């Protein structure tokens, strides 16, 4: 991957989207923001600015499979969102198994004594970081 561009990870939810990006060399992942969802036009406008600002070359979208590995209603919404991202931005979009990332993000934030109010805002961003780290790890094993 190297200097070919950054990867954007999205923890997609009905009310918020947590965002994380790789550094320019694709070595580390850092959370950048949590978008409060408004409507498709506003959400995609904000994503477009983020994609331009960070020179994103591909997107990883957390896929909330059921614990059994089966798709559920939210997983189907994420697949539709992924298709819309591909059409709008002409970038590769990867669906990535995100089971337990929100629980892990909550655990990490709790361990670091982040207040409940701040935790609500940070958990989606932290989940996006965990999704991106997991995706990057799998690539380094290839």
Description:
- With 142 residues, the chain is of the alpha/beta class.
- It has one domain (2-141): 2-Layer Sandwich (Nucleotidyltransferase, domain 5).
- The protein is built from four helices and five strands.
- The protein has helices at residues 40-53, 73-89, 101-111, 116-141; strands at 6-12, 16-22, 29-36, 56-63, 93-97.
- Strands 3-2-1-4-5 form a five-stranded mixed beta sheet, with helices on both faces.
- Helix 3 (101-111) packs across helix 4 (116-141).
- The chain is globular.
- The relative contact order is 0.21.
Strand order of the largest sheet: 3-2-1-4-5
Structural class: alpha/beta
What is CATH's topology name?
A: Nucleotidyltransferase, domain 5
The percent of residues in helical segments reads: 40-55%
* Overall mean confidence score, pLDDT: 87
CATH class: Alpha Beta
| Computed CA radius of gyration, to the nearest angstrom | 14 Å
Biggest sheet character: 5 strands, mixed
Order of helices and strands: EEEHEHEHH
Q: Layout of helices and strands, plus pairs?
A:
Layout: E1 6-12, E2 16-22, E3 29-36, H1 40-53, E4 56-63, H2 73-89, E5 93-97, H3 101-111, H4 116-141
Parallel strand pairs: 1-4, 4-5
Antiparallel strand pairs: 1-2, 2-3
Helix pairs in contact: 3-4
Keywords:
five-stranded mixed beta sheet, 142 residues, alpha/beta, 48% helix, Nucleotidyltransferase, domain 5, 4 helices, 5 strands, single chain
């Amino acid at each position: 991957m190297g200097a070919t561009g950054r990867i954007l990870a999205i923890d997609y939810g009905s009310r918020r989207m947590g965002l994380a990006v790789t550094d320019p060399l694709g070595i580390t992942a850092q959370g950048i923001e949590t978008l409060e969802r408004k409507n498709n036009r506003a959400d995609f406008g904000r994503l477009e600015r983020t994609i331009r600002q960070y020179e994103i070359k591909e997107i990883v979208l957390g896929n909330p499979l059921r614990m059994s590995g089966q798709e559920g209603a939210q997983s189907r919404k994420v697949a539709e969102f992924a298709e819309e991202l591909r059409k709008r931005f002409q970038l590769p979009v990867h669906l990535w198994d995100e089971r337990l990332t929100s629980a892990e993000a909550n655990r990490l934030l709790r361990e670091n004594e982040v207040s409940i109010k701040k935790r609500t805002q940070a958990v989606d961003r932290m989940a996006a970081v965990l999704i991106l780290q997991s995706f990057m790890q799998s690539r380094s094993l290839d």
